[in-house]
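Dear colleague,

Thank you for sharing your sequence with our group. We've completed the structure prediction you requested, and as agreed, I am returning the results in plain text so they can be pasted directly into your records. Please verify that the sequence below matches your submission; if there's any discrepancy, let me know and we will rerun it promptly.
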Amino acid sequence: MVEKKFREDLFYRIGVIPINIPPLRQHTEDIPLLVKTFINECNLKNDKAIKTIRKDALDLLVNYHWPGNIRELINVIEYTFVLCSGEAISPEHLPQQFKTRSTSTNEQSINNISSSQNKRQQLLNALQKTQGNKSKAAKILGISRVTLWKHLKKHNITVDKSAY
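Please find the predicted C-alpha coordinates below.
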Protein backbone atom coordinates (compact mmCIF):
# COMPACT_ATOMS: atom_id res chain seq x y z
CA MET A 1 0.00 0.00 0.00
CA VAL A 2 1.38 3.37 -1.03
CA GLU A 3 1.01 6.22 1.40
CA LYS A 4 0.80 9.47 -0.54
CA LYS A 5 2.44 11.77 1.98
CA PHE A 6 4.41 13.84 -0.52
CA ARG A 7 2.34 16.46 -2.28
CA GLU A 8 2.36 15.74 -5.99
CA ASP A 9 2.46 19.43 -6.93
CA LEU A 10 5.71 19.85 -4.95
CA PHE A 11 7.36 17.11 -6.98
CA TYR A 12 6.67 19.05 -10.16
CA ARG A 13 7.93 22.28 -8.60
CA ILE A 14 11.30 20.81 -7.67
CA GLY A 15 11.61 18.76 -10.87
CA VAL A 16 12.03 21.78 -13.16
CA ILE A 17 15.75 21.37 -13.73
CA PRO A 18 17.06 17.83 -13.41
CA ILE A 19 20.49 17.58 -11.84
CA ASN A 20 22.54 14.57 -12.83
CA ILE A 21 25.59 13.94 -10.67
CA PRO A 22 27.85 11.20 -12.01
CA PRO A 23 29.30 8.72 -9.53
CA LEU A 24 32.82 9.38 -8.25
CA ARG A 25 34.20 6.40 -10.20
CA GLN A 26 33.32 8.22 -13.43
CA HIS A 27 35.35 11.31 -12.60
CA THR A 28 38.41 9.98 -10.80
CA GLU A 29 40.45 12.95 -12.01
CA ASP A 30 38.73 14.96 -9.25
CA ILE A 31 39.89 12.66 -6.44
CA PRO A 32 43.27 14.37 -5.77
CA LEU A 33 41.62 17.78 -5.34
CA LEU A 34 38.83 16.30 -3.22
CA VAL A 35 41.35 14.50 -1.01
CA LYS A 36 43.32 17.71 -0.51
CA THR A 37 40.11 19.56 0.42
CA PHE A 38 39.03 16.86 2.87
CA ILE A 39 42.49 16.77 4.44
CA ASN A 40 42.27 20.52 5.04
CA GLU A 41 38.79 20.18 6.54
CA CYS A 42 39.86 17.31 8.80
CA ASN A 43 42.91 19.29 9.93
CA LEU A 44 40.62 22.08 11.10
CA LYS A 45 38.22 19.70 12.87
CA ASN A 46 40.85 17.52 14.51
CA ASP A 47 43.61 20.04 15.19
CA LYS A 48 46.17 17.94 13.33
CA ALA A 49 48.95 18.84 10.94
CA ILE A 50 48.61 16.29 8.16
CA LYS A 51 49.81 18.11 5.07
CA THR A 52 49.57 15.65 2.23
CA ILE A 53 48.95 12.12 1.01
CA ARG A 54 51.71 10.00 -0.50
CA LYS A 55 51.45 9.21 -4.20
CA ASP A 56 51.11 5.45 -3.66
CA ALA A 57 48.20 6.02 -1.26
CA LEU A 58 46.57 8.49 -3.65
CA ASP A 59 46.94 5.97 -6.50
CA LEU A 60 45.02 3.43 -4.42
CA LEU A 61 42.23 5.97 -3.92
CA VAL A 62 42.10 6.90 -7.61
CA ASN A 63 41.94 3.24 -8.70
CA TYR A 64 39.20 2.29 -6.23
CA HIS A 65 35.65 1.79 -7.57
CA TRP A 66 33.88 3.96 -4.90
CA PRO A 67 30.52 2.24 -4.40
CA GLY A 68 29.77 4.76 -1.63
CA ASN A 69 30.70 7.76 -3.79
CA ILE A 70 31.86 11.00 -2.16
CA ARG A 71 30.61 10.05 1.32
CA GLU A 72 32.82 6.98 1.27
CA LEU A 73 35.81 9.12 0.29
CA ILE A 74 35.11 11.49 3.19
CA ASN A 75 34.89 8.53 5.57
CA VAL A 76 38.19 7.14 4.27
CA ILE A 77 39.98 10.45 4.88
CA GLU A 78 38.49 10.70 8.37
CA TYR A 79 39.62 7.12 9.03
CA THR A 80 43.18 7.97 8.00
CA PHE A 81 43.19 10.86 10.45
CA VAL A 82 42.67 8.44 13.30
CA LEU A 83 45.66 6.32 12.28
CA CYS A 84 48.09 8.88 10.86
CA SER A 85 50.34 10.65 13.34
CA GLY A 86 52.78 12.13 10.83
CA GLU A 87 52.49 14.75 8.13
CA ALA A 88 51.58 12.45 5.22
CA ILE A 89 48.93 9.79 4.74
CA SER A 90 50.43 6.54 3.46
CA PRO A 91 48.86 3.27 2.27
CA GLU A 92 49.07 1.68 5.73
CA HIS A 93 46.71 4.38 7.04
CA LEU A 94 43.99 3.40 4.55
CA PRO A 95 41.12 1.04 5.45
CA GLN A 96 41.36 -2.70 4.82
CA GLN A 97 39.58 -2.66 1.43
CA PHE A 98 42.55 -0.76 -0.01
CA LYS A 99 45.12 -3.16 1.43
CA THR A 100 43.50 -6.28 0.00
CA ARG A 101 42.59 -4.88 -3.40
CA SER A 102 44.84 -6.15 -6.14
CA THR A 103 46.13 -3.52 -8.52
CA SER A 104 46.80 -5.86 -11.42
CA THR A 105 45.52 -4.73 -14.79
CA ASN A 106 43.07 -7.63 -14.88
CA GLU A 107 41.28 -6.29 -11.81
CA GLN A 108 41.16 -2.58 -12.61
CA SER A 109 37.71 -1.08 -12.77
CA ILE A 110 36.16 -1.44 -16.19
CA ASN A 111 35.21 2.23 -16.02
CA ASN A 112 38.89 3.22 -16.18
CA ILE A 113 39.36 1.71 -19.64
CA SER A 114 38.76 4.20 -22.44
CA SER A 115 38.52 2.09 -25.57
CA SER A 116 35.29 0.22 -26.28
CA GLN A 117 37.28 -2.71 -27.67
CA ASN A 118 39.35 -2.86 -24.45
CA LYS A 119 36.16 -2.88 -22.37
CA ARG A 120 34.76 -5.74 -24.43
CA GLN A 121 37.98 -7.72 -24.13
CA GLN A 122 38.20 -7.09 -20.40
CA LEU A 123 34.62 -8.29 -19.97
CA LEU A 124 35.38 -11.45 -21.95
CA ASN A 125 38.59 -12.07 -19.97
CA ALA A 126 36.80 -11.73 -16.64
CA LEU A 127 34.01 -14.05 -17.73
CA GLN A 128 36.52 -16.59 -18.97
CA LYS A 129 38.48 -16.50 -15.68
CA THR A 130 35.28 -17.04 -13.71
CA GLN A 131 33.88 -19.66 -16.11
CA GLY A 132 30.89 -17.46 -16.88
CA ASN A 133 30.07 -16.56 -13.26
CA LYS A 134 28.79 -12.98 -13.53
CA SER A 135 29.03 -12.23 -9.80
CA LYS A 136 32.69 -13.24 -9.67
CA ALA A 137 33.43 -11.43 -12.94
CA ALA A 138 31.90 -8.23 -11.56
CA LYS A 139 34.02 -8.55 -8.42
CA ILE A 140 37.20 -8.98 -10.49
CA LEU A 141 36.31 -5.89 -12.52
CA GLY A 142 35.49 -3.85 -9.43
CA ILE A 143 31.91 -3.14 -10.50
CA SER A 144 28.45 -4.19 -9.38
CA ARG A 145 26.61 -7.06 -11.05
CA VAL A 146 24.04 -4.64 -12.44
CA THR A 147 26.80 -2.55 -14.02
CA LEU A 148 28.31 -5.72 -15.47
CA TRP A 149 24.97 -6.68 -16.99
CA LYS A 150 24.66 -3.22 -18.55
CA HIS A 151 28.14 -3.52 -20.07
CA LEU A 152 27.39 -7.02 -21.35
CA LYS A 153 24.24 -5.76 -23.02
CA LYS A 154 26.01 -2.71 -24.45
CA HIS A 155 28.74 -4.88 -25.99
CA ASN A 156 26.32 -7.62 -27.14
CA ILE A 157 27.93 -10.31 -25.00
CA THR A 158 25.87 -13.31 -24.00
CA VAL A 159 27.07 -15.74 -21.38
CA ASP A 160 26.75 -19.43 -22.15
CA LYS A 161 28.07 -21.29 -19.10
CA SER A 162 28.20 -24.56 -21.05
CA ALA A 163 30.99 -23.02 -23.16
CA TYR A 164 33.24 -22.90 -20.11
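Summary note from our side: The mean pLDDT is 84.

Kind regards,
the structure core
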